[in-house]
Predict the structure.
Amino acid sequence: MGQNRVMSRLRAPFRPSARLLAALPRAALLAAALTFGSAQAQESLSAALEHFVRTHTQGLPGKVSYRITPLDPRTQTAACSAFEPFLPNGARLWGKSTVGVRCLGPSSWTIYVPVHVSVAGSYYVTARPLTAGHLLGADDIAARTGDLTALPGSIVTDPAQAIGKTVRNGVGGGQALRSDTLQAPWAVQQGQSVKLVSSGAGFTATSEGKALNNAAAGQVAQVRTASGQTISGIARSGGIVEVNY
């Protein structure tokens, strides 16, 4: 009977009495409370970061994956009930990035967390060696897949960005195509007879002239009229230069 009572007491969960708690050093109790509060704060902060990165990487051109650097458990931050993640000025979630987090209250502090974003997608390379001035067709380019964040920002990711344009310099086969190395075909060429279309409030007039420079569609073209006047306008396909007043 006495042995059963002893075993029952041994199996019962330990519940510290008020007297025992009062006997514990105050510093130990404070440390325990801070540890619990810090763990909760880090969990909420991690959730806020996760939501921010996931939301702001939607719509990127490919399959997105990201890695948020885990917070150092030793990071000391005062208690916070609301977090505001943000991108530092000039930063974007592409490749190696940094996300800032502000505490909105009751404390006021800011930390910065490294984030790495990868975007697996298609880009285009030359299918064969090309000479300068070559007009690109569908057979001149080939699709490849890879991490777009590790490639130049001007990489061609859509065939429409390349087909119909010319390469400014000779390139070897298998070279990544960049939009800043391609030239749109001339809509207007120097010495060409062009049609001037002038328009303004309540009127439209057409006349003839001669182009003084080469210009792709959307670029500025200078035209000398039959009277010898030089007029600037916007080049359009088909040898047209638009002048707005």
